[in-house]
Amino acid sequence: MKQLAIIGMGPRGLYALENLLIELSKTDTPIDIHVYDANSSPGTGNVWDQTQPDSNWINITERALIGIKKRPKIAYGDITIEAFPSYHDWCQFSQNKKEPDAFPARNKLGNYLNERYRSLEIALTTLESFKYRNAEVQNINLKSQKLYIDTANHSWQCDDLLLTIGHQPTALSDQMKAWQSFAHSFKSLSLFKDPYPITQFKSIKNQSTINIGIRGFGLAMIDVMRYLTINNFGNFKVIKQDTFETIYYKVREQQVKLVPFSLDGLPLVPKPLNESIDLWYQPTAEELDCFKSEIEAVSQQSTATDSIDFLTDPIAKITVRIFLDLKDKGISHSLSKAELKTLILNWLNAENFSHPLIQDSSISTYNLIQNYIDMALGAIPVSLDFCIGQVWRHCQPSLYEAFSHAKVNDDIIEQVIGLDEHSKRYSYGPPIKSMQQLLALVDADVLSLDFVDDPEIELTAEGWNFTNADKESITCSTMINSVLDAPKLLDVTSPLIKNLLQNDLIQPIHSKLGIETTADGYVITPDDKNDVPIAVLGRLAKGSVIGVDAILECFGPRIEDWAKAYVSQLKSN
User: Fold this and answer.
1) Per-residue pLDDT tens digits of the chain, which is 573 residues long
2) Which CATH number does the domain housing residue 17 bear?
3) What is the CA radius of gyration of the chain?
4) Is the peptide bond preceding residue 557 cis, with omega within 30 degrees of 0?
5) Per the count of CB atoms within 10 A, which of 61, 164, 311, 528 is most buried?
6) How far apart are CA 456 and CA 344, in angstroms?
């Protein structure tokens, strides 16, 4: 009987196991399945862990989670695995188009994912052929076409392996190495190298006097900010329900200052208030079909190209139509379609491109955030960059499907991923409520935006001393790194990945990207022989696939393709 190991039982591993069982139920081929996961709540992964505090919110609308479909009833061998409801049915989701979109705590989705896994496990543990181990895999090796798996207390051999392990630690940057050495030299200073788990900051959130630097100005910073300030001294209160305008009130005096900073100082852009406003930016089904076809015409046809016009041109075409249809909802202009398209292409190709239709990012960060909030509310005319960002978000699923396993050269793959990452300030933006909380903390003199744009940083005995362009300065005795590393395979430090690289069982598609895989998820080895029985789905395959960080991609066709390919191979042997 063949043996399969699944390493990692987050959402992607869960959906892979489900689809494996669905495909196996169509055959008479029994297999041994061993699951390895280091997390205490299988099905969730670290991102959706059930034990994280309520202050960690989902950053996509609950409405969008319609993509997490129900699991059908599965008759596998001698057992029946009962059906499991979709996420919307499970939480009895209901919302009209004018209601504000909901962005619940991440642990809510974690509860759903864990329940969905447990419903599988209840049936599977009655089988001798299924084993679940709550353990971290440290090494994998290949000998005589058998894979050998090692944890701290267990070894097992198998014929095939699926790797779905998500985010992995990476080597510290030179800046972080210097800061680590610096912090170790002074007992009064603290450095946190990662933003998660967020509960590690429990020891500092209720100090009466403290200045805290936060490296990064993205979604993780929002989680850190919210956790630190919902404390024994104060909390948030929404004072206008229709706009989520918020105040931060103190029940006791606390001298705390949060000081976020990043290389460009640009803030996140909140998502539209509700479905009704979000529909302003929705491409038609025909537009999305054409968009996908134009990308596939280049990405899947081995067509030589030295630019990403095949992506930027169709996205510009859609955005022109949508921005013109906004009429008085958008900033007034007299540009023709051709002029507007040129303007959009210029903005996509140059981060610092300026124009009266583009939001001026040189204004104060506070006013910039307020403007984007007002656009998301539909309260002021929409700038062209806000429109492009929302259209990009609607096009992302089609882009991810059309461009994954692209046959273009590695530099083009890197450029496409780079542009998608650049768009995430808009497309992966937080709820309006998060940005209103940030402004409330500024109003309460708890969070400073004075040093957000790449300050000079000097290391002193008192801590990290920031100086801005106006020569103002502040010193922080605690530093939190909220920048999440990109999945650059060669920088990953986990023993498992280092051993796989050392044993020549995986290779990066590009020195700056992740593991190279085939369309059905199997690794392409350094010697170009596709005979290593290891498949990789998810974050570590970034480059071969894109969009790997989105929760809906964990329940998408790439996982289904792997299951079909694996079972098809079983039947042919």
Assistant:
1) 899 999 999 999 999 999 999 999 999 888 999 999 998 899 999 899 999 999 999 999 999 999 999 999 999 988 999 999 999 999 999 999 999 999 999 999 999 999 999 999 999 999 999 999 999 988 888 887 888 898 988 889 999 999 888 777 777 888 999 999 999 999 899 999 999 999 999 999 999 999 999 999 999 999 999 999 999 999 999 999 999 999 999 999 999 999 999 999 999 999 999 999 999 999 999 999 999 999 999 988 766 788 999 999 999 999 999 999 999 999 999 999 999 999 999 999 987 899 999 999 999 999 999 999 999 999 999 999 999 999 999 999 999 888 887 888 888 888 998 899 889 999 999 999 999 999 999 999 999 999 999 999 999 999 999 999 999 999 999 999 999 876 566 666 677 777 777 666 666 544 455 677 777 777 776 655 456 788 888 766 655 567 667 888 899 888 999 999 999 988 877
2) 3.50.50.60
3) 25
4) no
5) 164
6) 33
**Based on the domain organization, do 361 and 435 belong to the same domain?**
no
**Whole-angstrom distance, CA of residue 216 vs CA of residue 176:** 13
Question: How is residue 345 written in tokens?
Answer: 């292409």
Tell me the pTM.
0.92
d(CA 210, CA 212): 6
Number of domains in the chain: 3
HEC string of 265-282 equals CCCCCCCCCEHHHHHHHC
Query: Distances in Å between the alpha carbon of 317 and those of 323, 336, 356, 372, 428?
Result: 10, 12, 20, 23, 22
Query: Same domain, yes or no, for 12 and 72?
Result: yes
Domain limits for position 192: 174-268+431-481
| Cβ atoms of 437 and 246 closer than 8 Å | yes
Domain co-membership, 15 together with 147: yes
Cα angle, residue 502 at apex, residues 500 and 505 outer, rounded to 5°? 45
Residue with tokens 């709550």: 134
Q: What residues have CB less than 8 Å from 455, skipping those under 6 apart?
A: 261, 466, 467, 468
Sheet holding 130-133, edge to edge: 130-133, 31-36, 2-7, 160-163, 534-536
Tokens of 103: 């962005």
